[in-house]
Amino acid sequence: MSKKEDIQQEEKAVEEKVTAEQVEETVEATDNEAKAEETKKEPTAEELIQAEKDKYLRLFAEFENYKKRTSKERIELFKTAGKDIIVSLLPVVDDFDRGMIEINKSGDEELVKGVALIQDKLVKTLEQKGLTLVEVNQGDAFDADIQEAITQIPAPTEELKGKVIDVIEKGYKLGETIIRFPKVVIGQ
After folding, report:
1. Are 123 and 94 in contact (CB under 8 A)?
2. Lesser CB count within 10 Å: N end or C end of the chain?
């Protein structure tokens, strides 16, 4: 054999050796990756226990939030359970107020006492159910959050500008919720 052939054979042997080493490295890398994946796929007992604890805690917290939310909704429902009936009785209370004004003009004391007793009984019964009057007086500053302005009129004095001149209709609250806003006239 010639030198050229010897060199070619050596190169070929080196190439085969390098290729064999590369294949061996690739196989080893693949084996290492497979082992790593197997390790990842098989969590330890501690990891499984921790995952179950986390799952349990989340479920427990979610249930506690549900209980709080439903109890809060139930309390609100009980507070405003008779809202429809109370709202429908508000015009009757207004009629009693207007009637008392006219009955006082008649001068019949016995009639005034009798109607006043009935009115007080109705108002006290509604108060026991949680109804309260929204206090608005003449000269108070107008508050759009708790009052409804019916109209504006020129203020009789400079001090009454932007303030309540007259209360047309009383307002009421049931618990903390305003069920009817007081209707007022404000000074311009």
Report:
1. no
2. N
CATH of the domain at 176: 2.30.22.10
Is the separation of the CB atoms in 119 and 167 below 8 Å? no
User: Which residue range forms the structural domain that includes residue 55?
Assistant: 46-79
- The answer, yes or no, to whether residue 39 has pLDDT greater than 60, is no
Q: Could you tell me if 126 and 93 are in contact, meaning their C-beta atoms sit under 8 angstroms apart?
A: yes
pLDDT beyond 90 at 181: yes
CA 57 to the chain's CA centroid: 24
pTM passes above 0.90: no
CA distance 161 to 145: 18
Residue 76 DSSP symbol = H
Q: Is the dihedral of CA 80, 83, 86, 91 positive or negative?
A: positive
Any idea what DSSP says for residue 184?
Answer: E
